[in-house]
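Hi U.,

Before I forget, here's the chain from the pilot set. I'm dumping it here mostly so it's searchable later in email.
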Amino acid sequence: MNTENIKEIASEIQIFQTLEQKEAFLFVLGALTARIISLKKAAEIVELEPEVCLKLLELIGIEFSYLSQEDVLIEKNW
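Structure:
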């Protein structure tokens, strides 16, 4: 994916005002889902409180859990 495609996708995100904020949010989404960064770090990057960041993820339909993948499976099957 080239820079032009990323900018085009980022421009469609209505949650943030600037292109830089939108690009940071896309980066954070990927890093969170890959479990590379914590929710606290993600919130810091997009300049939101962790609770607000978590609520935002919830509103856009992205499930985020502090649990490991194994813990999530146990929780779902219990």
